[in-house]
Task: structure prediction
Amino acid sequence: MKAEFYDVKSRTKIEAEVKYKVKYENGHFGIVGEAPDGRKLPKFVSEDAYNTTYKAVKVQAKAEPAKKAAAKPAAKACA
Result:
């Protein structure tokens, strides 16, 4: 099943295949597609769309939290 996603990198809307759907811990619903270059494209959807439109899409067992980037050490001030 295809859906329209916003590609942040190219700043355009693209149509991509829906890979799976997710129910987040905070109660939100989403679907995830894949860009032609392999990047994940998340999109939030309503509960109604999650249960009806994307009914045939497989559910991911648990939503993975975003990974935080490692903090860089602060540069020392020049005296």
